[in-house]
Amino acid sequence: MMANSELTHDSVKQQHPISLYLKVWGLLFVLSTLSYLVDYFHLQGMLRWSLILLFMALKAGLIAAVFMHMRWERFALVYTIFLPPLVLLVLVGLMASEANYIFALREWFFSLPGG
Q: How many distinct structural domains can be found in the chain?
């Protein structure tokens, strides 16, 4: 058996309190309930989709931070995992913007006389 002075950083196991996991589980339950209430109250339009995406992002962030233990990892690893999907989301946003522009341009072009 090793003496306390001989323990290395790798041999020490970190254990999180069960209360942390229960609190996160409760918060996920509340966020899921709020997400359900968006449909229950028949919200429509941008408000509906904004709330659904907000609750989805909050739940995904909580799951990644606590249950995937990203909160306790080095920033280099966290950036390596989360930066590529973030870049892809930016590119999807740019493509959606371009698609809206092309759609509006085609509507304008086909509405011209003789078009």
A: 2
